[in-house]
Amino acid sequence: MDSFLEEEDEEAVVVVVGKRKRRRRSPAAQAALQPPLHLPFLPPQPASSHEHKLNFRKSKEACLSYIQDAMLQKQWKRAAEFLTCYVESLEKDYSREHIGPSEMIWRIGTEILWHHSQSSMKEFNCFMEQMKTLGVKRYLKVCLEHVFHLLCNGQIDEAYQNLSLAESWRFGEQTAIQDKEMKLIEAYRGLLDYYSWSKQKNILLEHSEDGFSDLAVEQEMHSYFRKAAVNLKEIIKIPGVWDVFVKCYVDLLEFYGDHNEARQVLNEYAYNSKFPANPNAHVYLYQFLKRQGESKKSLISALKILHDIVPSHELMIDFNTMLQKSKKRKKRRLGLEVIFAALDYAGWKENAKAWSCLARQVKQIVISEKHLDWIKQEWNSRKDWWPAFHFSRYLAKRNWQENKSLSYEKALVAGILLGKDCKYFKHVSHQGCKTQLKKFRMLKKFVNRHNPVYLRISGPPDSSV
Fold it and tell me: In the chain, what percentage of residues exceed pLDDT 70?
């Protein structure tokens, strides 16, 4: 980080356990390195212990404030300068005021190095190695962050080496204290073993397509499988959110045909009350059941829980489709509730599939004139805000210009829910008839013919819509 200072030929303090190295600077160079803001460093004259502690605290707090301000303004070069000053001030006082600043230096330094325009992997690796030796109590946390940075930069082999070294680390009682971090180290090593297994699997599949097998590749692939499976299986036993580890472990099990174990893992991840509520757990279970060709009842059961947790999930279209195909009235009723709930969210406002699902079901109900109370129940809680949210004149114009299929589905729903005088319906049907599109003429006739249904659903029309 010290190379980021404006005077690149001047070398700042290098922190090493039990040692300090400095290069003497000329007064001019020292002045050039000082930031323009005044830092209240301790006075050189002797001071009482109380006064010294007070001054040191003020100096430290002021310096940290300047660092924070620079980081918030994304002035990474300036932040690096202040951090250097902060380290120097701590060194001057370390013998008299025992403090443990290494975690703060580690976190601030990592953030600066991540964003600094002149940052390099060599600089980052050097800094992280220093932080590992400086902070034994957080050694494995630093190792994990180092590994993440290496992975983000595509250095898979280097990351694996760091994980292997961290896994073999022992330091008295600190090893037991950092047991959780050690399990994460092992889990991420398992993840990289899975990555290697996946690469070998793809090579093997390519060879099998060419009509020949490679025993060496197959053996290496099985070796990676064994190492990955052991570590992945261990981490997902601990209550937590382990999405990536669960997905990889299930992939391994499915490849080798152990579907019962895969099912057990996913059921445990989704339904064990010790684990935090996690929508993805139910998504993975649903996808697995679908791959296995399970019954509609099992699929609906998995998606019902997902709907209760995240009613705006993208799988709600699949859920609605399955429910609408059911012969049971209760499930068809739930299907209408599901699609209405999904469209309550802004992310679904222009989802043509969702509007098509709603339009199809509403149309079926209107034609049969059965279960109009279903529509009325859903509409009662929405009639005060859906018109402005979905059916304004502005949206009618924009939807028509950008997606005519979407505007058609929405116009059908708007015409039924708000009647033939709804501004959205009137604009879209008028534009459709003007361009002589047959389906829009049919849309207009359908809404006009069934306008009494609107009266039964909503009561007197609202002239503001």
Answer: 80
Rounded to the nearest 10 degrees, the angle between the axes of helix 393-402 and helix 423-434 is 30
The owner of tokens 């001057």 is 92
Q: How far is CA 50 from CA 11, 46, 57, 63, 249, in A?
A: 33, 12, 11, 20, 58
* 14-16 and 19-21 beta bridge pairing: antiparallel
Distance CA 410, CA 1 (A): 57
Q: Which has the higher per-residue pLDDT, 454 or 421?
A: 421
**Tokens of residue 247, six digits:** 């997905």
- Report the alpha-carbon distance of residue 188 to residue 232 in Å, rounded: 8
Q: Is the pLDDT of residue 5 over 50?
A: no
What amino acid occupies position 410?
K
Residue for token pair 């380290």:
87
Q: Which residues contact 262 (CB under 8 A, 6 or more apart)?
A: 250, 253, 254, 288
Q: Which phi and psi (to 5°) does residue 20 adopt?
A: -140, 140
- Counted residue by residue, the chain has a size of 465
Distance in angstroms (rounded) separating the CA atoms of residues 362 and 336: 8
Structure confidence at residue 16 (pLDDT): 38
pLDDT value at 286 more than 70: yes
